[in-house]
Design brief:
The chain is α+β, with helices and mostly antiparallel strands and 105 residues long. The protein has a single domain (2-99), classed as SH3 type barrels (Roll), CATH 2.30.30. Helices cover 18% and strands 32% of the residues. It has one helix and five strands. A five-stranded antiparallel β-sheet has the order 4-3-2-1-5. A hairpin with a 6-residue loop joins strand 1 (41-45) and strand 2 (52-64). The model has no long low-confidence stretch (mean pLDDT 76).
Length: 105
């Protein structure tokens, strides 16, 4: 499993480096894609005050499934709070992340 996490991290770093250096263009969004693009704005809930806070997506990472099923992974979104250099991460899924261009539920 450590190899899988290491591989996912290497892929994410290689993708970020390639897109920053424009080795290849960033791919267009696919209909139904649930990953907000790097650089996009999202709102995440904050347990301290129950408010949603505006953040910028700066990356992703994946961890193995809790039941150790090789074909499943937990995907996390890396964010930075807008106007700060404070980083955070959220598990992708349910209602924990809302794209800034959507209407609140």
């Amino acid at each position: 499993m450590a190899d899988c996490c290491r591989w996912a991290g290497q892929c994410a770093r290689a993708y970020e480096a390639a897109t920053e250096s424009r080795i290849w263009p960033v791919l267009d969004l696919v209909h139904g894609d649930v990953l907000p693009p790097i650089g996009s704005d999202v709102y995440i809930p904050h347990g301290r005050d129950d408010d949603e806070h505006l953040c910028e997506v700066v990356g992703y990472y994946a961890w193995p499934d809790l039941q150790r099923r090789a074909h499943l992974h937990r995907v996390f979104l890396r964010v930075v709070y807008k106007g700060t250099d404070t980083q955070n991460a959220r598990l992708l899924g349910m209602d924990s992340i809302r794209r800034a261009d959507t209407i609140p539920a």
